[in-house]
UniProtKB/TrEMBL annotation:
<dbReference type="InterPro" id="IPR051207">
    <property type="entry name" value="ComplexI_NDUFA9_subunit"/>
</dbReference>
<dbReference type="GO" id="GO:0044877">
    <property type="term" value="F:protein-containing complex binding"/>
</dbReference>
<dbReference type="InterPro" id="IPR036291">
    <property type="entry name" value="NAD(P)-bd_dom_sf"/>
</dbReference>
<protein>
    <submittedName>
        <fullName>NADH dehydrogenase</fullName>
    </submittedName>
</protein>
<feature type="domain" description="NAD-dependent epimerase/dehydratase">
    <location>
        <begin position="4"/>
        <end position="214"/>
    </location>
</feature>
<dbReference type="InterPro" id="IPR001509">
    <property type="entry name" value="Epimerase_deHydtase"/>
</dbReference>
<dbReference type="Pfam" id="PF01370">
    <property type="entry name" value="Epimerase"/>
</dbReference>
Length: 306
């Protein structure tokens, strides 16, 4: 089938393109002007230049499609450039759902995020509201809530590569973040990193599975790893025995209050909040249902970092 992907040129998006093609589908991408060189396997895709806010452009992208995947998300806002959680993670998703419904495209897959909630950070709230809109839309929807996704970045931003560049390679000790003054729980919050190929394969199989309609799938890797273990594992993958040091988050939050919108400051206040909440879950039933052996977060699977 022909499948529209919004957010098909980013990290997860290029793997979705790969996997859909391997399943015999043809991706149709919306591509921002100037991003044509980011289209992966361009000769095997249909792609249309334009913006997410342009309803007529969405109609051209969706023409002839039997399904839509909304895979747009950001980690930091730049309001002056129109890059906000509200516009991209909620309003854009809502517009795509409305256009899909008007074209009688019933199947709609939504990339949300693990840990979203109605009273969370702006990132979490807008993702949650998009989920709620999909449920109320009448579309045959499936929601995916990935934890942190890792894998060969193919020149794009990716979790483990960013930690390698920002924390492992610099000569300073790696931070073990903690709340309060005493470092009793420094670096003890947990994450369940999931490999990007596993995520893309689950999307493709769910797309073809009538039982996936109306479902919400948490997508988490097989292990719930403490932050300190994640740092050590990435260090070993690149041949470094990285030292660590407890770091209270209070001064970082104060600095982020001033530097939130600076791309050079590594973390926003909301990212710190979500980091300390942890990001874990149990996806064993999803892997079992689709016959996928989950990829462990270890030195072998992180070999692309070398």
């Amino acid at each position: 089938m022909k499948v529209a992907i919004l957010g098909g040129t980013g990290f997860l998006g290029c793997y979705l393109v790969d996997t859909l093609i391997s399943h015999g589908h043809r991706p149709a991408l919306l591509v921002r002007p100037g991003s044509q060189d980011k289209v992966y396997r361009a000769t095997q895709c249909d792609w249309t230049p334009g913006g997410l806010q342009e309803e007529d452009t969405l109609r051209r992208v969706f023409s002839g499609c039997e399904a839509v995947i909304y895979n747009i998300g950001i980690l930091r806002e730049f309001p002056r450039q129109g890059i906000t959680f509200e516009s991209l993670q909620y309003a854009g998703a809502r517009r795509a759902m409305d256009v899909a419904a008007s074209l009688d495209i019933a199947r709609f897959l939504l990339t949300s995020a693990n840990g979203v909630k109605p009273d969370g950070t702006p990132y979490q709230r807008t993702k949650y509201r998009a989920e709620e809109y999909l449920v109320a839309s009448g579309l045959a929807g499936t929601v995916f809530r990935p934890s942190v996704i890792f894998g060969d970045p193919r020149g794009r931003m990716e979790f483990a590569t960013r930690l390698r560049d920002d924390i492992i390679r610099p000569p300073l000790p790696a931070p073990l973040f903690h709340e309060g003054l005493l470092p009793m729980n420094a670096g003890r919050f947990r994450m369940s990193p999931i490999h990007v190929r596993d995520v893309a394969e689950i999307y493709a199989r769910a797309l073809e599975d009538p039982e996936a309609v109306g479902k919400m799938y948490p997508l988490c890797g097989p292990d719930a790893l403490e932050w300190r273990m994640i740092i050590k594992t990435i260090g070993r993958a690149v041949g470094q025995n990285k030292w660590t040091v407890p770091v209270p988050v209070f001064p970082l939050r104060m600095a982020a209050t001033v530097l939130d919108r600076s791309p050079d400051f590594p973390l926003t206040r909301d990212q710190l909040t979500m980091l300390l909440e942890g990001n874990t879950g149990d996806s064993s039933s999803v892997f079992a249902a689709y016959g996928i052996e989950p990829t462990a977060f270890d030195e072998d699977s992180l070999s692309y970092l070398r």
